[in-house]
Amino acid sequence: MAAVLGAAVGTVGTIATGWTSRSLTKIQMRVESLRARREPRRSSYEAFSSAAISLHDHLEPWITFGRHLERPKQSGASTWDGVAYVSRDSFKEGYVPRAVELADEVSRYGRHVILDGPAELEPFVAKVVDLSGNLGSLFRIMQSLNRYTDEEGRSTMAYDTSELPDKLKQLDHGVREFLLQASAALDRDLDTQPSTRSFTRKRSA
Question: pTM of the full predicted structure?
């Protein structure tokens, strides 16, 4: 009788061990799947935010100081209306194309974030992309007009820059908002990963 019971216990133990092993394997496979999904998301979030920060840093010196050098001479103490007269000679070589390139990168990487998800990040992505596009519009226009200027670059344009400082601040704030939401999304991915430790506790209970 003891031998029979011993054999039965051994059989149950083998079955339980096999079931536990298969369950742990499934859990590990799920963990790896979540990790494989999380890493591309993290990479796209980082690329998007880095592009937006690079655009901000590229434009900040000119928006903060440089545009004031292009303001028209005014008599008296009248308040500057923010209109600057700019041409391609107002910027060092490569500055305008780089501004357009960075704005395009923000838009492109934003699409990657939307594709990678989750969906609740879309409004934050759209805000950053829109602000980047608005900030880059002056340089996109200049780049287009430069194709039709003579060698001396005599196409000077009047541009209202009064809203640029506020939009630059909004871009900085928008990137911060996005990063907070993106971090929360990645944390939620981690929270959905099953814990082998809690599984073991349930089995031992």
Answer: 0.73
